[in-house]
Amino acid sequence: MEITMDDAVSQFIKRKYGSSLMSTGWVLVVGTAEGALTGAPDGFVNMHNEGLPNYTQLGLLQSGVNSVTHEQLCAWIGGSKPEPPPF
Fold it and tell me: What is the C-alpha separation between 9 and 41, in angstroms, rounded?
């Protein structure tokens, strides 16, 4: 059975955060490395749902960066060990 990325993202969000949530847009950034080449540079691939405008993609990415930055700063101020990002 084949599933689309939109369906996979929606199902994941509903399972993790509750069935009443609806995803209205998503951007996925994946870190990559070329496994066949020794010393190959790391890179990334990004994907988004179809029809999501560039400004909305940037807004979602910036929100994620701000969230992780805020959590790290609060953990540093509080002296606790930061948790990994929620994604």
Answer: 28
Q: What is the pTM of this model?
A: 0.67
Taking the domains of the chain in order of start, what are their residue ranges?
1-51, 53-87
The letter for the amino acid at 82 is: P
* Tens of pLDDT, residues 23-58: 999 999 988 887 777 777 788 899 999 999 999 999
In the block, residue with structure tokens 């993609």 = 57
What are residue 28's DSSP bridge partners?
A: 47
Angle 50-10-34 from CA coordinates, rounded to 5°:
65
Question: In whole angstroms, what is the distance from residue 82 CA to residue 15 CA?
Answer: 24
